[in-house]
Specification:
6 strands, 68% helix, 10 helices
Amino acid sequence: MRIPQSADCLSRFLLCCTATLLGLASLVGTAFAEPLSFDAALALAVRETPTLRAEAAQVDAMRHAAIPAGELPDPKLTLGLDNVPIEGVDRFSLSSEPMTMQRIGVMQEFPNTSKRGARVEVARGRIALSEAQIRITRLTVLRETALAWIARDTVERQLARIDALDGENRLFEAAVRARIAGAKGSAMEAVAARQEAAMIDARRDELIARRQQSIATLKRWVGPRAEAPLEGDVPDWPIAHDALAHALHWHPELAIFDPKAQVLDAEVAEARAEKKPDWALELAYQKRGSQFGDMATVQVSFDLPVFAATRQDPKIAARLAEREGLDAEREAVMREHAAMLEADFAEYQRLDKAVRRQREVLLPLAGEKVDLALAEWRGGKGELVNLVMARRERVDAELMALALEGERQKMAARLHYAYGEPTLSGEKQ
């Protein structure tokens, strides 16, 4: 059975309308999305990053695990039959012999005080270690979100500059056509103008692709809000070498060695406490036959750590070796971060000088070159190719200035979020 042509046309019309409405809804949603500022992106990343939530749950787990650390072991219930005859006429009788007893008792072990205290310190150290790991992860989230936001902001500034060239290019093409119409130019000039416009379009396509890549990177940290339009500027962090070097000692990746040392010191103390005897107390009630009186037993037992050379001492030596290795590892990380600070600060200084040179020297020179080439071309003394090359160099200089500013902001963010514990507002806690 054939579908009538009118019904087929109606179906196509409805499908087109639906697609159009969906597209408009997407555009409207994007257009009216709440802008994403720098601080808002950082706050959203800290709140929504799954890694931070997972590590917060780990801290809660450590806190719960610490509760029984210093408690006594569970008591033990003991049941038994003592002195049951297995021969003679009274064999297996529980009431004929005065020494046959049914026993029920409770035994409580008492680890020595030093061992229990060391276990508490181990638990506290592990809580502090988990909290220190959260601080490291939080700093990483802040830094990577800042870098992603800056990368997108930089490429969007470059796109805005490319888009601003459209009007200038239309005027340029009109001037070329006017010269050709007035028999003052050649057809080659028209081709050169269109070729320049095509190269700018290619540059725009490249920047659009980079913008999508930067949005994808930002989306890792802030989720769907990464597609919202950006708002505001990057904070102007004070980058001073002495302040950064002073803050280096409190860097979270160095501060984490304090709880690590706390855990190892407590484990050393626990290993040494193994040399002290634990003891246990047992209370038992013993029931005999009805013709005999019942009995009770009190029993105390002690551990005898008499083989310390092959049991406790090796454990102590192992923990002490780990502690010594931790100190060496701390020194290695300290040197690594100090070297990174010097290298990053030197790169920041280079970028800062490059930005000033680009803005104060190279950009004005590129603009002056365009003005001179344009004046010569209009006066009939210069070639259009010289003007095209001068305009291209000016565009490259403008885009380079924006790129250098973005790189300088990224390096400032790396320094700011690598050598301290900054808050979302950029100030230290």
